[in-house]
Amino acid sequence: MKRPKLAGVFLFVCCLLAYLMFVKHHFSSKADVFRPLPPQHQPSSDRTADDRPSSSSGLDFQYGIMFDAGSTGTRVHIFKFQMENTEAPKLAEETFRAIKPGLSAYADDPQKCTTGIMELLEVAQSSIPSSLWTSTPVVLRATAGLRLLPGEKADHLLDRVRALFQESPFLSREDSVSIMDGTDEGISAWITVNFLTGGLHSADSPTVGILDLGGGSTQITFSPQDEKTIQTSPIDYIRSFQVFHSTHTVYTHSYLGLGLMSARLAILGGVDAPPLGGSTELVSPCLAPEYSGRWEHADVVYTVKGQKAGEPAYEACLAKVEKVLYRKVTRASEAADADFYAFSYYYDRAVDLGAIEEKSGGAIRVSEYMDAAKRVCGSLSFGPQNPFLCLDLVYISVLLQQLGFPPHKHLQLARTINRVETSWALGATFHYVQTLRTR
């Protein structure tokens, strides 16, 4: 009888041990299910120590490379974002480099743009950990300089850049290289500025408008507070979009051909008689009397001259500017009341006047541009150092008034906010990176 009892006890102990082993394995498996996993877009073993996500907060880092192919130069922005699943990304770092001339200068020989693009790609490679190159999108958006080119020439330039991107170690997709719509340029700049000033951090935060004066085009974008503005504005001036889980409605328009360099050419009379050869002569009352010099625009070298002394320069130049802008600009009804940031050539000419510090920026009244235009144009000595200052100031002062800004209106001028450029590049990169993460 003892042997059966011992066998029964032994069998019971074995069953108990087997059950305990099963329970232990079962719960350890469930613990694995709930363990935080590294993001799927980049294996954790490939990350550097600084770029590994925090398992407790769900944060990770994403880089984005944005090439801004403008009319006067190409700029690369390398952004490092701290990504969060439920909140807006945080900008951890930016690297910036610019080269001249713009892509459009190589319209007749696209191969020549290779050196500059490769130089900027090398800047990106030195700024991003090599383990993250294949997961970092590289994007080029061309603006007014390429919009103004014949379609075939623009396509050849973009094809060359596309080939260079595909040969690079970065993530290049079919939509990585394109010409940016002017409206998207204005919206992206609005996103950039309002992200940097805090206007997008919550639904209740007030936003600011933006004014961007580039070489080939100019943009105005702001969020209307009056329903009447939305109802009475041209239908294509009102756009709604979502950013950081909130929907925004803005008044936005891009005026192609009214950027400062394109406007210069039109005011000088170059548009009516485009040159067939390599150079042409332009004479204008917007230049100092007896001035003669050379000016290169869109790969054409112009000889520019001032008219003889006699007719008041300011009045004569004002008439030329008003003729160029006649019925080309729509007045924005709320522009006088909204807060605006202005940059690009608005900023540069204010620096030239000494109205703001070059590094820190500041505020300026529209009337300061107007008064400076009268003062500069009335001086016989404005030619040698900056021969276009009279023309530029008259153009800016008239443009702002036609957009709806009265003389007493203050504009905040900023080249950077929190050391980040006030351009469309950051806003466009936000959009592209988030699009990749949702695919």
UniProtKB/TrEMBL annotation:
Keywords: ATP-binding, Hydrolase, Nucleotide-binding
Keyword Ligase among record annotations: no
GO CC aspect terms: Golgi apparatus
UniProt-listed Gene3D superfamilies: 3.30.420.40, Exopolyphosphatase. Domain 2 (3.30.420.150)
Cross-referenced PROSITE patterns: GDA1_CD39_NTPASE
Residues given in the record as ATP binding sites: G215, G216, S217, T218, Q219
Molecular function GO terms recorded: ATP binding; nucleoside diphosphate phosphatase activity
Domain of life: Eukaryota
Region annotation Disordered: where it falls in the sequence: 34-56
EC top class, as a word: hydrolase
EC identifiers of the protein: 3.6.1.6
Keyword Hydrolase: yes
Catalytic site positions: E185 (proton acceptor)
Family of the protein in this entry: Belongs to the GDA1/CD39 NTPase family.
Entry protein name: nucleoside diphosphate phosphatase
Organism in which the protein naturally occurs: Parambassis ranga (Indian glassy fish)
